[in-house]
Fold this protein.
Amino acid sequence: MINFNDEIFKNLCVVSAPSGAGKSSLIKKVCIEKNISVCISETSRKPRKGEVEGVDYKFIEKEDFQERVKANKYIEYAIVHGNYYGTSIESVTNQVKKDEIVILEIDIQGAEIIKKKIPFSRSIFILPPTLKILEKRLRERATDEESVILERLKNAKTEVTKAPLYDYILVNDDFDNSQSQLTIYINDINTDIAEKIRKEPLIDIDF
Ligand code: 5GP
């Protein structure tokens, strides 16, 4: 039985964002630092062009995912845009034990579960500057069909309303600045959550 109150889970840092906000690119850059890694999630979503098994996700069948849910293999899981996504307890525990900062790139539902289970973990929400820019980024990415883009835009409107529940909010308007800021938040391991000051004001966003 894993004790989530253990000090080692202080190393956990949740990062959420609406699809297309630039979260994955920012995190890839931040992970160049030696002591930071991402916990690779499991998903029932089919791989996109260019995605690599075990690097982007562990891609598994829906039925296998459901079996693993029943067997309590996930610290959190959620259905996002119609697919299952989850963080394996075994993977995350092995990583935090190495005394590395471990990033969970997960959605708002998963973030809420982690905050309940591990209140002293950190959480960061990345916002795009505007919905128009988000839409432009999703289209430029050209990895999803129109119906998927529209669903992701619709979900983005709900997701941004949850931003105030996170310890930090970061507006990704300039990639280099956002990268530096994200690195600071992710490394901010020793500040008591209760003492944390929101470094970014809650701005008026045109969502
Ligand atoms: P995508 O399909 O674009 O890779 O991811 C869709 C959403 O699922 C994103 O918001 C991403 O952060 C979220 N996600 C990825 N892995 C997990 C996970 O393990 N748990 C949860 N709850 N969400 C995840």
Observations:
- The beta strands are 12-16, 36-38, 42-43, 58-59, 74-80, 83-88, 101-105, 122-127, 168-171.
- Residues 199-203 have pLDDT under 50 and may be disordered.
- Residues 146-160 form the longest helix (15 residues).
